[in-house]
Amino acid sequence: MRWFRRSRSTDPRDAPDPRTPWPEQDVPADPEAAAEAFWRRWRELLPDISAALGEGEPQRAETLLCEEVARLHPDLQFSLDRGQRSIYALVVSGQEDPALRPYTDAWKAAAPPDDAIWEYHDSVPPVPDPTEVTVNLAGHRIALADVRVVAQVDEIERVVDVAVHHPGLAELEEPARAAMTFLPLDATLGERLAAERLRRVETAVAEPDGTIGLLELRDLVRELAGDVGGPD
Length: 232
What we know:
2 domains; three-stranded mixed beta sheet; 6 helices; globular; alpha/beta; 36% helix
């Protein structure tokens, strides 16, 4: 998955006076109206987006969408991925920023129904089976099947504290180690459930006692959230 936001031009002719700060991008006052405008443009752009993806040029499709997502809200990110039930998935995410939630909620509420070609997500969904995923990170191939987690449940707050271990963590530099701590959790739970139910997340370079696998963690957290069946 690659995340995109609209970037500023790198053409030096477009650069402002260096003494002048970059202007703030407009934020729509009405999330519902902005969402409806997005979906109107989506219908107009869909033939070109489909053609770009069909021709193996996802960057062309991403370029078409950058401006439209920024018009919905300049701080939103998006990705075009393989779908779980459809061929493609469009994911628009506010990275669980509460200030962006009205915009992603409105976007999802106004979205067309999923069909055989497209499905739509307002946060990063979990992968069907994280234990089948292998990540290429900092020159290492890391199988998520080897991730082990210690999970401590706070029954009163209905949240979980976790420590994440993988045998390859000791070989990673700190930035990659931090990424490898959170990536399995998002892949297992999805962005929203992880943000809602994981309170403290730690890295365990040495494997601690009492660990469970990622699928066991998913079952535990979903049961805690009252979402035993998982997402629709």
